[in-house]
Task: structure prediction
Amino acid sequence: MAALDLRGWIDDLEERNDLKRVKAEVDWDEEIGAITREISSQFGPALLFENIKGHRDTPCRRLFTNGTGTKERVCRILGVSEKNTYRELVAIFKERFSKPLKPVTVSSGPVKENIIKKDAVDLFQFPVPKWNPHDGGRYIMTSASVVTRDPDNGVLNAGTYRGMIAQKNTIGVLLAMTQGWGKHFSNYIKRGQEMPVAVVIGWDQALFMSASTPVNHPEYELAGSLRGAPVELVKCETSDLMVPASAEIVLEGFVSADPKTFEPEGPFSEYPGYYAGRKTPKHAIRVECITHRNDPIFHGCLTGSSPGRTNEGTTWTPATFSAMAWQYLEEAGVPNVTGVWRGKWPELLRVQIRKSHRGHAQQVANALWGCHLANYAGKHLIVVDDDIDIHDWEAIEWALCYRINAGLGDISTFPGTSGSMLDPSVPSAERDSVKYGHGKWTRVLLDATINWELEPQDQYGGNRYPPLGTAISPEMKETLKRRWKEYGF
Ligand SMILES: Cc1cc2nc3c(=O)[nH]c(=O)nc-3n(C[C@H](O)[C@H](O)[C@H](O)COP(=O)(O)O)c2cc1C
Ligand SMILES: [Mn+2]
Result:
């Protein structure tokens, strides 16, 4: 059974000896981030820091991180066997993401135990790390779920978006107009209104997972589906937004489109494994109210991974993104998709198809590049036939070598598309969230399926490709089996 809130999850981890309470005094300034980076890269335990410099007497004293840092923990959150492979986890996420579970409303909950308003709001009371040496400041929004409501149709969205403390009541954020809250923001701008937001810090990890995945249903409904129990929500104090009743901390605030309200944000160690963004004025959340549990636990996470280095999201974002990409392809009507896999970084997606028509791989590219998942994924797309194992890089490499002929149109590029603001291969002037709404990518399709312009050949039994030259005939296999010892092996 999945844990129902952050404390339930911490108890579960502790029972299984999968939690480390760090009682030594640690500094929020780089030290927490460095310890977490080491432990996370070793796929070590979840961490609860209990003695943070300067925070022994603040209302919030403790910080939890790395809660999703192993595949086994991810399985546990889903309530499935820890032995599941990533291929199986993609199928499990795909199934859960297709079955949204409506949240329920309750009148109150522990998140309302403390209510802090207006001038009493002071974000520096939370043990927020400066996670990495060159971060622009203390990033309070890393694993937080940012809740907004579409003013046109009332639907709630929850997304994981980064945000850095600017003043005691303001947070500079990276607001991409292509993301869930960006779409809502453009509807508030149209009405000339500020956008109410609620930042949920510390709850069931199922919400962290659904809010960090470009899903196609409201995240609360999918968090409910992932954990197998509906999310219980209470109303905010300053807006009609809804938040989990047993969340640790909720920051309620507003975002304005007026550049006079902007605050400095960036840089931050980002998912590509590089710092991204310059310290420039960006949209800001003006926090007007904080509600929190008694003795609240702050929740944050590292981001960024490079070869040999990881963060907790690396254990599940490949599976959640693959599951969603597969689902979007099915919704778009692309037939015979037999596998999807994303590795550590979202830029490269691999899709396996049972090819049924010329242009099938191009259809995959069109559908993926046009869906919500493409905002931060699929700059490069590799499509292979169903005899190539997409979880096996050697098999992919072989397909890239012998099933691609650029001269026959197997490589296509699509310039001028919207894409990640955080990709260092794009000139920084081209990825200004305030000016352009998002970044800019030239996308590439590597169609590594057998090209159907190649005519079937009689000499190959009517196939387009020759037989595998490394195969041994069944008759000879029998002979070898019979004589193997005789050969002296
Ligand atoms: C730790 C972490 C930080 C993230 N920060 C941002 C961010 O600052 N801006 C952004 O647009 N997406 C960010 N993302 C990616 C989004 O969470 C992801 O695209 C998700 O789909 C957003 O929800 P939405 O689809 O409802 O917009 C982050 C993801 C993670 C795991
Ligand atoms: Mn969304």
About this structure: The chain has two domains: 6-299, 332-448.
